[in-house]
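## tool: complex_structure
## caller: assistant
## args:
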Amino acid sequence: MLLGALEAGGTKMVASIGDEHGKIIDRASFPTLSPSETMPALIAYFKQHAIEGLGIACFGPLDLNHDSDTYGYITTTPKQGWGNYPILPELCSALGVPTEIDTDVGAAALAEFELGAAKGLGSCLYMTVGTGVGGGVIANGALVHGLVHPEVGHILLKPHPKDPTPNGFCPFHEGCLEGLAMGPSFDKRWGISSKDLPTDHIGWEIEAYYLAQLCEMAIVVLSSECIILGGGVMQQKFLFPMIREQTLKLLNGYVAHDRVLNHIDQMIVEPGLGIHSGVTGALLLGAHAARK
Amino acid sequence: MLLGALEAGGTKMVASIGDEHGKIIDRASFPTLSPSETMPALIAYFKQHAIEGLGIACFGPLDLNHDSDTYGYITTTPKQGWGNYPILPELCSALGVPTEIDTDVGAAALAEFELGAAKGLGSCLYMTVGTGVGGGVIANGALVHGLVHPEVGHILLKPHPKDPTPNGFCPFHEGCLEGLAMGPSFDKRWGISSKDLPTDHIGWEIEAYYLAQLCEMAIVVLSSECIILGGGVMQQKFLFPMIREQTLKLLNGYVAHDRVLNHIDQMIVEPGLGIHSGVTGALLLGAHAARK
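## result:
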Protein backbone atom coordinates (compact mmCIF):
# COMPACT_ATOMS: atom_id res chain seq x y z
CA MET A 1 0.00 0.00 0.00
CA LEU A 2 1.50 3.38 -0.98
CA LEU A 3 1.07 5.84 1.88
CA GLY A 4 1.99 9.39 2.74
CA ALA A 5 3.45 10.40 6.10
CA LEU A 6 3.75 13.93 7.37
CA GLU A 7 5.87 14.72 10.41
CA ALA A 8 4.78 18.24 11.22
CA GLY A 9 7.18 20.02 13.54
CA GLY A 10 7.65 23.58 14.64
CA THR A 11 10.79 24.15 12.57
CA LYS A 12 10.36 21.72 9.69
CA MET A 13 7.81 19.51 8.01
CA VAL A 14 9.08 16.14 6.80
CA ALA A 15 6.96 14.49 4.12
CA SER A 16 7.57 10.83 3.33
CA ILE A 17 6.22 8.17 1.04
CA GLY A 18 6.25 4.59 2.23
CA ASP A 19 4.18 1.54 3.04
CA GLU A 20 2.25 0.03 5.93
CA HIS A 21 5.31 -1.91 7.09
CA GLY A 22 7.21 1.31 7.72
CA LYS A 23 9.36 1.07 4.59
CA ILE A 24 10.18 4.56 3.26
CA ILE A 25 10.77 5.09 -0.45
CA ASP A 26 10.93 8.86 -0.69
CA ARG A 27 11.29 11.82 1.61
CA ALA A 28 11.40 15.61 1.46
CA SER A 29 11.78 18.32 4.08
CA PHE A 30 10.21 21.77 4.12
CA PRO A 31 10.75 24.61 6.58
CA THR A 32 7.71 25.37 8.76
CA LEU A 33 6.75 28.85 7.58
CA SER A 34 3.15 30.09 7.54
CA PRO A 35 0.44 27.68 6.41
CA SER A 36 -0.05 29.65 3.17
CA GLU A 37 3.60 29.11 2.29
CA THR A 38 4.17 25.59 3.62
CA MET A 39 0.92 23.81 2.82
CA PRO A 40 1.02 24.20 -0.99
CA ALA A 41 4.55 22.73 -1.04
CA LEU A 42 3.42 19.74 1.02
CA ILE A 43 0.36 19.19 -1.11
CA ALA A 44 2.39 19.41 -4.32
CA TYR A 45 4.84 16.86 -2.94
CA PHE A 46 2.21 14.32 -1.94
CA LYS A 47 0.34 14.79 -5.24
CA GLN A 48 3.36 13.40 -7.09
CA HIS A 49 2.66 9.99 -5.57
CA ALA A 50 -0.42 7.77 -5.89
CA ILE A 51 -0.92 7.44 -2.14
CA GLU A 52 -3.95 5.59 -0.75
CA GLY A 53 -3.85 7.18 2.69
CA LEU A 54 -2.08 9.89 4.65
CA GLY A 55 -0.95 9.93 8.27
CA ILE A 56 -0.01 13.09 10.11
CA ALA A 57 2.23 13.12 13.19
CA CYS A 58 1.86 16.68 14.35
CA PHE A 59 3.02 19.01 17.11
CA GLY A 60 0.18 19.70 19.52
CA PRO A 61 -2.12 20.52 20.98
CA LEU A 62 -4.54 18.95 18.54
CA ASP A 63 -8.27 18.37 18.47
CA LEU A 64 -8.56 14.58 18.16
CA ASN A 65 -12.23 14.34 19.06
CA HIS A 66 -13.98 12.80 16.05
CA ASP A 67 -17.30 14.36 17.09
CA SER A 68 -15.87 17.86 17.20
CA ASP A 69 -16.39 20.51 14.50
CA THR A 70 -12.68 21.21 14.69
CA TYR A 71 -11.46 17.60 14.49
CA GLY A 72 -7.95 17.46 13.07
CA TYR A 73 -7.17 21.10 13.87
CA ILE A 74 -4.03 22.32 15.58
CA THR A 75 -5.53 24.26 18.48
CA THR A 76 -3.80 26.70 20.86
CA THR A 77 -0.21 26.69 19.60
CA PRO A 78 1.74 29.96 19.78
CA LYS A 79 3.39 29.05 16.43
CA GLN A 80 2.63 31.93 14.06
CA GLY A 81 -0.28 31.16 11.73
CA TRP A 82 -0.86 27.61 12.98
CA GLY A 83 -3.21 28.36 15.88
CA ASN A 84 -6.66 26.87 15.14
CA TYR A 85 -5.38 25.64 11.80
CA PRO A 86 -7.34 22.79 10.10
CA ILE A 87 -4.31 20.78 9.06
CA LEU A 88 -6.14 17.47 8.61
CA PRO A 89 -9.19 18.87 6.76
CA GLU A 90 -6.93 20.90 4.44
CA LEU A 91 -4.67 17.97 3.51
CA CYS A 92 -7.54 15.50 3.30
CA SER A 93 -9.56 17.66 0.88
CA ALA A 94 -6.55 18.75 -1.20
CA LEU A 95 -5.28 15.19 -1.64
CA GLY A 96 -8.61 13.35 -1.66
CA VAL A 97 -7.32 10.42 0.41
CA PRO A 98 -8.32 9.08 3.84
CA THR A 99 -6.25 10.88 6.46
CA GLU A 100 -5.58 10.27 10.13
CA ILE A 101 -3.76 12.44 12.63
CA ASP A 102 -2.20 12.12 16.05
CA THR A 103 0.43 13.92 18.06
CA ASP A 104 4.06 13.34 17.07
CA VAL A 105 4.59 11.32 20.24
CA GLY A 106 1.29 9.49 19.82
CA ALA A 107 2.37 8.38 16.35
CA ALA A 108 5.74 7.28 17.71
CA ALA A 109 4.01 5.30 20.47
CA LEU A 110 1.82 3.60 17.87
CA ALA A 111 4.85 2.66 15.78
CA GLU A 112 6.78 1.28 18.75
CA PHE A 113 3.66 -0.64 19.77
CA GLU A 114 2.93 -2.17 16.37
CA LEU A 115 6.43 -2.62 14.96
CA GLY A 116 9.00 -1.65 17.58
CA ALA A 117 10.03 -2.23 21.18
CA ALA A 118 6.48 -2.97 22.44
CA LYS A 119 5.46 -5.28 19.59
CA GLY A 120 3.39 -8.16 20.89
CA LEU A 121 2.44 -6.40 24.15
CA GLY A 122 -0.85 -4.71 25.05
CA SER A 123 0.42 -1.41 26.40
CA CYS A 124 3.30 1.03 26.30
CA LEU A 125 4.40 4.56 27.01
CA TYR A 126 6.62 6.29 24.47
CA MET A 127 8.46 9.35 25.74
CA THR A 128 10.77 11.73 23.99
CA VAL A 129 13.26 13.54 26.21
CA GLY A 130 14.86 16.28 24.20
CA THR A 131 14.28 20.01 23.82
CA GLY A 132 10.89 19.18 25.31
CA VAL A 133 9.47 16.15 27.07
CA GLY A 134 6.33 14.51 25.75
CA GLY A 135 4.68 11.16 25.56
CA GLY A 136 2.17 8.98 23.78
CA VAL A 137 0.22 6.32 25.64
CA ILE A 138 -1.07 2.95 24.44
CA ALA A 139 -3.46 1.17 26.79
CA ASN A 140 -5.55 -1.90 25.99
CA GLY A 141 -3.98 -1.89 22.54
CA ALA A 142 -5.02 1.62 21.47
CA LEU A 143 -3.74 5.19 21.64
CA VAL A 144 -5.20 6.94 24.67
CA HIS A 145 -7.28 10.00 23.87
CA GLY A 146 -9.79 11.63 26.16
CA LEU A 147 -10.38 15.24 26.96
CA VAL A 148 -7.63 15.92 24.40
CA HIS A 149 -4.49 13.77 24.30
CA PRO A 150 -1.82 13.05 26.90
CA GLU A 151 0.67 15.78 27.81
CA VAL A 152 2.78 13.48 29.95
CA GLY A 153 5.69 15.94 30.13
CA HIS A 154 3.75 18.06 32.59
CA ILE A 155 3.31 15.75 35.57
CA LEU A 156 4.66 17.27 38.77
CA LEU A 157 7.56 15.50 40.43
CA LYS A 158 9.07 15.07 43.84
CA PRO A 159 12.26 17.15 43.65
CA HIS A 160 15.64 15.52 44.05
CA PRO A 161 17.11 16.72 47.37
CA LYS A 162 20.33 17.81 45.65
CA ASP A 163 18.70 19.62 42.72
CA PRO A 164 19.75 23.29 43.00
CA THR A 165 16.78 24.30 40.79
CA PRO A 166 13.89 22.10 42.01
CA ASN A 167 11.25 24.24 40.30
CA GLY A 168 12.71 23.51 36.89
CA PHE A 169 12.30 25.67 33.82
CA CYS A 170 8.80 25.17 32.43
CA PRO A 171 7.07 28.53 31.94
CA PHE A 172 3.75 26.97 33.02
CA HIS A 173 4.55 24.67 35.93
CA GLU A 174 6.91 24.76 38.89
CA GLY A 175 8.50 21.36 39.17
CA CYS A 176 7.06 19.49 36.20
CA LEU A 177 8.92 16.72 34.37
CA GLU A 178 9.59 18.77 31.24
CA GLY A 179 10.89 21.73 33.23
CA LEU A 180 13.15 19.48 35.29
CA ALA A 181 14.38 16.93 32.75
CA MET A 182 14.37 18.44 29.24
CA GLY A 183 17.69 18.85 27.47
CA PRO A 184 17.92 22.64 27.97
CA SER A 185 17.51 22.18 31.74
CA PHE A 186 21.11 20.94 31.86
CA ASP A 187 22.43 24.22 30.46
CA LYS A 188 20.24 26.24 32.77
CA ARG A 189 20.94 24.20 35.90
CA TRP A 190 24.65 23.47 35.48
CA GLY A 191 25.74 26.05 32.91
CA ILE A 192 26.85 23.26 30.61
CA SER A 193 25.16 21.27 27.88
CA SER A 194 24.14 17.68 28.60
CA LYS A 195 26.53 16.60 25.85
CA ASP A 196 29.47 18.06 27.76
CA LEU A 197 28.46 17.07 31.29
CA PRO A 198 30.82 14.39 32.68
CA THR A 199 29.12 11.03 33.11
CA ASP A 200 29.88 11.02 36.86
CA HIS A 201 28.30 14.48 37.40
CA ILE A 202 25.40 14.48 39.86
CA GLY A 203 23.30 16.06 37.11
CA TRP A 204 22.91 12.62 35.58
CA GLU A 205 21.80 11.07 38.84
CA ILE A 206 19.19 13.81 39.15
CA GLU A 207 18.09 13.31 35.53
CA ALA A 208 17.77 9.56 36.10
CA TYR A 209 15.76 10.18 39.28
CA TYR A 210 13.22 12.32 37.44
CA LEU A 211 12.88 9.89 34.56
CA ALA A 212 12.55 7.05 37.06
CA GLN A 213 9.63 8.91 38.64
CA LEU A 214 8.07 9.00 35.19
CA CYS A 215 8.61 5.26 34.85
CA GLU A 216 7.18 4.61 38.32
CA MET A 217 4.13 6.67 37.37
CA ALA A 218 3.70 4.75 34.11
CA ILE A 219 3.76 1.46 36.01
CA VAL A 220 1.34 2.45 38.79
CA VAL A 221 -1.06 4.61 36.76
CA LEU A 222 -1.02 3.07 33.28
CA SER A 223 0.24 -0.37 34.25
CA SER A 224 2.47 -0.01 31.17
CA GLU A 225 4.30 -3.15 30.12
CA CYS A 226 6.95 -1.18 28.29
CA ILE A 227 8.37 2.31 28.68
CA ILE A 228 10.26 3.51 25.63
CA LEU A 229 12.58 6.47 26.13
CA GLY A 230 13.73 8.32 23.04
CA GLY A 231 14.92 11.82 22.15
CA GLY A 232 18.22 13.65 22.29
CA VAL A 233 18.91 13.32 26.02
CA MET A 234 18.43 9.55 25.81
CA GLN A 235 21.31 9.29 23.36
CA GLN A 236 23.35 9.16 26.57
CA LYS A 237 22.87 5.42 26.82
CA PHE A 238 24.40 5.13 30.29
CA LEU A 239 21.18 6.74 31.57
CA PHE A 240 19.16 3.57 30.95
CA PRO A 241 20.67 1.40 33.71
CA MET A 242 20.56 4.40 36.07
CA ILE A 243 16.86 4.94 35.37
CA ARG A 244 16.06 1.23 35.73
CA GLU A 245 17.84 1.05 39.09
CA GLN A 246 16.10 4.19 40.40
CA THR A 247 12.71 2.95 39.18
CA LEU A 248 13.10 -0.29 41.12
CA LYS A 249 14.14 1.71 44.20
CA LEU A 250 11.10 3.97 43.89
CA LEU A 251 8.69 1.05 43.40
CA ASN A 252 10.33 -0.74 46.33
CA GLY A 253 8.77 -4.10 45.46
CA TYR A 254 5.22 -2.75 45.45
CA VAL A 255 4.31 -4.05 42.00
CA ALA A 256 5.46 -7.63 42.46
CA HIS A 257 5.31 -8.68 38.82
CA ASP A 258 8.05 -10.86 37.34
CA ARG A 259 8.57 -8.37 34.49
CA VAL A 260 9.28 -5.55 36.95
CA LEU A 261 11.29 -7.56 39.45
CA ASN A 262 13.37 -9.59 37.04
CA HIS A 263 13.17 -8.02 33.58
CA ILE A 264 13.25 -4.28 34.10
CA ASP A 265 15.83 -4.14 31.28
CA GLN A 266 13.05 -5.28 28.93
CA MET A 267 10.57 -2.80 30.39
CA ILE A 268 12.51 0.46 30.22
CA VAL A 269 14.08 0.47 26.79
CA GLU A 270 15.35 2.41 23.80
CA PRO A 271 13.06 2.86 20.80
CA GLY A 272 13.04 -0.31 18.70
CA LEU A 273 12.73 1.82 15.58
CA GLY A 274 15.60 4.15 16.47
CA ILE A 275 14.91 7.63 15.14
CA HIS A 276 12.19 6.36 12.80
CA SER A 277 9.36 5.95 15.33
CA GLY A 278 7.65 9.16 14.22
CA VAL A 279 7.62 8.59 10.48
CA THR A 280 6.68 4.93 10.93
CA GLY A 281 3.79 5.97 13.16
CA ALA A 282 2.60 8.44 10.54
CA LEU A 283 2.66 5.69 7.92
CA LEU A 284 0.66 3.43 10.25
CA LEU A 285 -1.88 6.21 10.79
CA GLY A 286 -2.14 6.51 7.00
CA ALA A 287 -2.64 2.74 6.71
CA HIS A 288 -5.37 2.84 9.39
CA ALA A 289 -7.10 5.63 7.50
CA ALA A 290 -6.87 3.79 4.17
CA ARG A 291 -8.31 0.57 5.63
CA LYS A 292 -11.34 2.27 7.17
CA MET B 1 -31.03 -10.49 34.21
CA LEU B 2 -30.41 -11.87 37.72
CA LEU B 3 -26.79 -11.35 38.68
CA GLY B 4 -24.50 -11.91 41.63
CA ALA B 5 -22.06 -9.29 42.90
CA LEU B 6 -19.27 -9.92 45.35
CA GLU B 7 -17.45 -7.03 46.99
CA ALA B 8 -14.43 -8.76 48.47
CA GLY B 9 -12.69 -6.65 51.09
CA GLY B 10 -10.06 -7.31 53.68
CA THR B 11 -12.46 -7.20 56.63
CA LYS B 12 -15.77 -8.24 55.06
CA MET B 13 -17.24 -9.80 51.96
CA VAL B 14 -20.52 -8.31 50.76
CA ALA B 15 -22.56 -10.55 48.48
CA SER B 16 -25.46 -9.02 46.56
CA ILE B 17 -28.08 -10.10 44.09
CA GLY B 18 -29.24 -7.57 41.52
CA ASP B 19 -29.60 -6.78 37.86
CA GLU B 20 -27.59 -5.21 35.04
CA HIS B 21 -29.05 -1.78 35.79
CA GLY B 22 -27.52 -1.80 39.25
CA LYS B 23 -30.77 -2.57 41.07
CA ILE B 24 -30.07 -4.63 44.21
CA ILE B 25 -32.70 -7.06 45.51
CA ASP B 26 -30.81 -8.91 48.20
CA ARG B 27 -27.59 -8.53 50.16
CA ALA B 28 -25.60 -10.35 52.83
CA SER B 29 -22.31 -9.64 54.57
CA PHE B 30 -19.71 -12.13 55.76
CA PRO B 31 -16.52 -11.49 57.73
CA THR B 32 -13.32 -12.09 55.76
CA LEU B 33 -11.82 -15.07 57.57
CA SER B 34 -9.72 -17.71 55.83
CA PRO B 35 -10.85 -18.89 52.37
CA SER B 36 -11.88 -22.29 53.80
CA GLU B 37 -14.27 -20.55 56.20
CA THR B 38 -15.53 -17.68 54.05
CA MET B 39 -15.84 -19.22 50.60
CA PRO B 40 -18.41 -21.92 51.46
CA ALA B 41 -20.65 -19.26 53.02
CA LEU B 42 -20.42 -17.09 49.91
CA ILE B 43 -21.08 -20.04 47.60
CA ALA B 44 -24.08 -21.16 49.67
CA TYR B 45 -25.48 -17.64 49.53
CA PHE B 46 -25.16 -17.26 45.76
CA LYS B 47 -26.56 -20.78 45.20
CA GLN B 48 -29.87 -19.68 46.69
CA HIS B 49 -30.44 -17.44 43.65
CA ALA B 50 -30.70 -18.35 39.98
CA ILE B 51 -27.98 -15.94 38.88
CA GLU B 52 -26.84 -15.85 35.25
CA GLY B 53 -23.50 -14.22 35.91
CA LEU B 54 -21.23 -13.16 38.76
CA GLY B 55 -19.04 -10.09 39.09
CA ILE B 56 -16.27 -9.80 41.68
CA ALA B 57 -14.92 -6.45 42.88
CA CYS B 58 -11.91 -7.55 44.87
CA PHE B 59 -9.05 -6.12 46.91
CA GLY B 60 -5.80 -6.44 44.99
CA PRO B 61 -3.37 -7.12 43.69
CA LEU B 62 -5.09 -9.42 41.19
CA ASP B 63 -3.98 -11.30 38.12
CA LEU B 64 -6.26 -9.90 35.39
CA ASN B 65 -4.30 -11.25 32.45
CA HIS B 66 -6.67 -13.56 30.56
CA ASP B 67 -3.73 -15.44 29.06
CA SER B 68 -2.22 -16.22 32.45
CA ASP B 69 -2.46 -19.59 34.22
CA THR B 70 -3.38 -17.69 37.36
CA TYR B 71 -6.05 -15.43 35.82
CA GLY B 72 -8.53 -14.34 38.48
CA TYR B 73 -6.20 -15.07 41.40
CA ILE B 74 -5.51 -12.70 44.26
CA THR B 75 -1.71 -12.49 44.08
CA THR B 76 0.72 -11.06 46.67
CA THR B 77 -1.61 -9.87 49.43
CA PRO B 78 -0.39 -10.18 53.02
CA LYS B 79 -3.97 -11.08 54.05
CA GLN B 80 -3.76 -14.46 55.78
CA GLY B 81 -4.75 -17.32 53.49
CA TRP B 82 -5.63 -15.15 50.49
CA GLY B 83 -2.19 -14.89 48.89
CA ASN B 84 -2.20 -16.63 45.49
CA TYR B 85 -5.82 -17.59 46.05
CA PRO B 86 -7.90 -18.51 42.93
CA ILE B 87 -10.99 -16.55 43.90
CA LEU B 88 -12.48 -16.34 40.40
CA PRO B 89 -11.82 -19.98 39.40
CA GLU B 90 -13.24 -21.22 42.74
CA LEU B 91 -16.46 -19.21 42.51
CA CYS B 92 -16.87 -19.81 38.79
CA SER B 93 -16.61 -23.59 39.12
CA ALA B 94 -18.68 -23.82 42.31
CA LEU B 95 -21.52 -21.72 40.89
CA GLY B 96 -21.27 -22.75 37.24
CA VAL B 97 -21.94 -19.23 35.90
CA PRO B 98 -19.82 -16.87 33.81
CA THR B 99 -17.73 -14.77 36.17
CA GLU B 100 -15.69 -11.62 35.73
CA ILE B 101 -13.35 -9.90 38.17
CA ASP B 102 -11.68 -6.57 38.62
CA THR B 103 -10.23 -4.56 41.46
CA ASP B 104 -12.70 -2.91 43.83
CA VAL B 105 -11.78 0.48 42.42
CA GLY B 106 -11.81 -0.80 38.85
CA ALA B 107 -15.36 -2.02 39.36
CA ALA B 108 -16.34 1.34 40.86
CA ALA B 109 -14.78 3.14 37.89
CA LEU B 110 -16.78 0.94 35.52
CA ALA B 111 -20.01 1.69 37.37
CA GLU B 112 -19.41 5.44 37.41
CA PHE B 113 -18.52 5.27 33.73
CA GLU B 114 -21.56 3.27 32.62
CA LEU B 115 -24.22 4.52 35.03
CA GLY B 116 -22.79 7.29 37.21
CA ALA B 117 -20.91 10.56 37.07
CA ALA B 118 -19.03 9.77 33.84
CA LYS B 119 -21.99 8.35 31.92
CA GLY B 120 -21.86 9.43 28.28
CA LEU B 121 -18.14 10.25 28.35
CA GLY B 122 -15.25 8.19 26.99
CA SER B 123 -12.88 8.27 29.95
CA CYS B 124 -12.71 8.70 33.70
CA LEU B 125 -10.63 8.14 36.78
CA TYR B 126 -12.36 6.88 39.91
CA MET B 127 -10.42 7.34 43.14
CA THR B 128 -11.25 6.33 46.65
CA VAL B 129 -9.59 8.40 49.37
CA GLY B 130 -10.14 6.66 52.69
CA THR B 131 -8.06 4.32 54.82
CA GLY B 132 -6.13 3.79 51.60
CA VAL B 133 -6.00 5.62 48.28
CA GLY B 134 -6.66 3.70 45.09
CA GLY B 135 -8.05 4.22 41.64
CA GLY B 136 -9.59 2.62 38.60
CA VAL B 137 -8.97 4.02 35.14
CA ILE B 138 -11.24 4.05 32.09
CA ALA B 139 -9.61 5.13 28.83
CA ASN B 140 -11.10 4.85 25.34
CA GLY B 141 -14.23 3.39 26.96
CA ALA B 142 -12.59 0.43 28.73
CA LEU B 143 -10.95 -0.39 32.05
CA VAL B 144 -7.18 0.02 31.76
CA HIS B 145 -5.21 -3.15 32.44
CA GLY B 146 -1.64 -3.80 31.41
CA LEU B 147 1.22 -5.29 33.33
CA VAL B 148 -1.34 -5.78 36.12
CA HIS B 149 -3.87 -3.05 36.96
CA PRO B 150 -3.45 0.56 38.04
CA GLU B 151 -2.22 1.29 41.57
CA VAL B 152 -2.79 5.03 41.25
CA GLY B 153 -2.41 5.63 44.99
CA HIS B 154 1.33 5.22 44.70
CA ILE B 155 2.35 8.06 42.41
CA LEU B 156 4.99 10.28 43.97
CA LEU B 157 4.05 13.88 44.64
CA LYS B 158 5.67 17.24 44.97
CA PRO B 159 5.48 17.94 48.71
CA HIS B 160 3.49 20.90 50.01
CA PRO B 161 6.01 23.41 51.44
CA LYS B 162 4.10 23.58 54.73
CA ASP B 163 3.65 19.82 55.18
CA PRO B 164 5.52 18.87 58.38
CA THR B 165 5.66 15.23 57.20
CA PRO B 166 6.45 15.44 53.48
CA ASN B 167 7.46 11.78 53.24
CA GLY B 168 4.00 10.63 54.27
CA PHE B 169 3.16 7.30 55.85
CA CYS B 170 3.26 4.62 53.17
CA PRO B 171 5.49 1.73 54.26
CA PHE B 172 6.69 1.31 50.65
CA HIS B 173 7.18 4.82 49.28
CA GLU B 174 8.44 8.11 50.65
CA GLY B 175 6.09 10.82 49.46
CA CYS B 176 3.44 8.86 47.55
CA LEU B 177 -0.18 9.96 47.28
CA GLU B 178 -1.55 7.28 49.57
CA GLY B 179 1.05 7.96 52.24
CA LEU B 180 0.39 11.69 52.07
CA ALA B 181 -3.39 11.87 51.60
CA MET B 182 -5.06 8.77 53.08
CA GLY B 183 -7.42 9.28 56.00
CA PRO B 184 -5.00 7.96 58.65
CA SER B 185 -2.37 10.49 57.53
CA PHE B 186 -4.42 13.20 59.30
CA ASP B 187 -4.08 11.48 62.66
CA LYS B 188 -0.40 10.84 62.13
CA ARG B 189 0.43 14.31 60.83
CA TRP B 190 -1.75 16.47 63.08
CA GLY B 191 -2.58 14.13 65.96
CA ILE B 192 -6.27 14.53 65.19
CA SER B 193 -8.71 12.66 62.99
CA SER B 194 -9.82 14.24 59.73
CA LYS B 195 -13.37 14.25 61.09
CA ASP B 196 -12.33 16.52 63.94
CA LEU B 197 -9.93 18.79 62.06
CA PRO B 198 -11.35 22.35 61.78
CA THR B 199 -12.27 23.27 58.20
CA ASP B 200 -9.85 26.23 58.24
CA HIS B 201 -6.90 24.07 59.35
CA ILE B 202 -3.97 24.09 56.92
CA GLY B 203 -4.23 20.29 56.86
CA TRP B 204 -7.15 20.64 54.45
CA GLU B 205 -5.22 22.96 52.16
CA ILE B 206 -2.41 20.39 52.08
CA GLU B 207 -4.87 17.55 51.44
CA ALA B 208 -6.47 19.51 48.59
CA TYR B 209 -3.03 20.25 47.15
CA TYR B 210 -2.15 16.56 47.01
CA LEU B 211 -5.47 15.54 45.50
CA ALA B 212 -5.14 18.39 43.00
CA GLN B 213 -1.80 16.93 41.91
CA LEU B 214 -3.62 13.66 41.33
CA CYS B 215 -6.21 15.51 39.22
CA GLU B 216 -3.50 17.34 37.29
CA MET B 217 -1.81 14.00 36.60
CA ALA B 218 -5.10 12.46 35.44
CA ILE B 219 -5.60 15.32 33.00
CA VAL B 220 -2.09 15.37 31.54
CA VAL B 221 -1.37 11.61 31.54
CA LEU B 222 -4.78 10.01 31.00
CA SER B 223 -6.54 13.01 29.45
CA SER B 224 -9.44 12.02 31.73
CA GLU B 225 -12.70 13.82 31.07
CA CYS B 226 -13.97 13.16 34.56
CA ILE B 227 -12.25 12.58 37.91
CA ILE B 228 -14.53 11.02 40.50
CA LEU B 229 -13.40 11.27 44.12
CA GLY B 230 -15.06 8.98 46.64
CA GLY B 231 -14.17 7.40 49.97
CA GLY B 232 -14.32 8.51 53.58
CA VAL B 233 -12.09 11.58 53.34
CA MET B 234 -14.19 12.94 50.47
CA GLN B 235 -17.25 13.04 52.73
CA GLN B 236 -15.79 16.43 53.68
CA LYS B 237 -17.54 18.07 50.74
CA PHE B 238 -15.80 21.43 51.19
CA LEU B 239 -12.70 19.71 49.78
CA PHE B 240 -14.15 19.63 46.26
CA PRO B 241 -13.97 23.38 45.50
CA MET B 242 -10.53 23.52 47.12
CA ILE B 243 -9.27 20.67 44.91
CA ARG B 244 -10.78 22.21 41.79
CA GLU B 245 -9.16 25.57 42.48
CA GLN B 246 -5.75 24.01 43.16
CA THR B 247 -5.99 21.84 40.03
CA LEU B 248 -6.58 24.90 37.87
CA LYS B 249 -3.63 26.64 39.55
CA LEU B 250 -1.38 23.64 38.93
CA LEU B 251 -2.44 23.30 35.28
CA ASN B 252 -1.98 27.06 34.85
CA GLY B 253 -3.89 27.18 31.58
CA TYR B 254 -1.75 24.53 29.93
CA VAL B 255 -4.62 22.28 28.85
CA ALA B 256 -6.77 24.93 27.20
CA HIS B 257 -9.94 22.88 26.87
CA ASP B 258 -13.32 24.43 27.59
CA ARG B 259 -14.18 21.65 30.03
CA VAL B 260 -11.08 22.40 32.11
CA LEU B 261 -11.18 26.16 31.86
CA ASN B 262 -14.92 26.66 32.33
CA HIS B 263 -16.45 23.48 33.73
CA ILE B 264 -13.99 22.11 36.25
CA ASP B 265 -16.96 21.60 38.59
CA GLN B 266 -18.21 18.97 36.13
CA MET B 267 -14.77 17.38 35.80
CA ILE B 268 -13.82 16.83 39.43
CA VAL B 269 -16.90 15.40 41.05
CA GLU B 270 -18.48 13.19 43.69
CA PRO B 271 -19.50 9.65 42.74
CA GLY B 272 -22.80 9.72 40.88
CA LEU B 273 -23.74 6.42 42.52
CA GLY B 274 -22.90 7.56 46.05
CA ILE B 275 -21.62 4.63 48.09
CA HIS B 276 -22.97 2.09 45.58
CA SER B 277 -20.25 2.39 42.92
CA GLY B 278 -18.55 -0.83 43.99
CA VAL B 279 -21.56 -3.12 44.10
CA THR B 280 -22.95 -1.62 40.89
CA GLY B 281 -19.62 -2.23 39.20
CA ALA B 282 -19.63 -5.84 40.36
CA LEU B 283 -23.12 -6.29 38.89
CA LEU B 284 -21.92 -4.79 35.60
CA LEU B 285 -18.95 -7.17 35.56
CA GLY B 286 -21.42 -10.02 36.10
CA ALA B 287 -23.57 -8.74 33.23
CA HIS B 288 -20.49 -8.50 30.96
CA ALA B 289 -19.62 -12.09 31.84
CA ALA B 290 -23.15 -13.34 31.23
CA ARG B 291 -23.37 -11.65 27.81
CA LYS B 292 -20.07 -13.13 26.56
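## assistant note: The radius of gyration of chain B is 19 Å. Chain B has a mean pLDDT of 97. Handing back to user.
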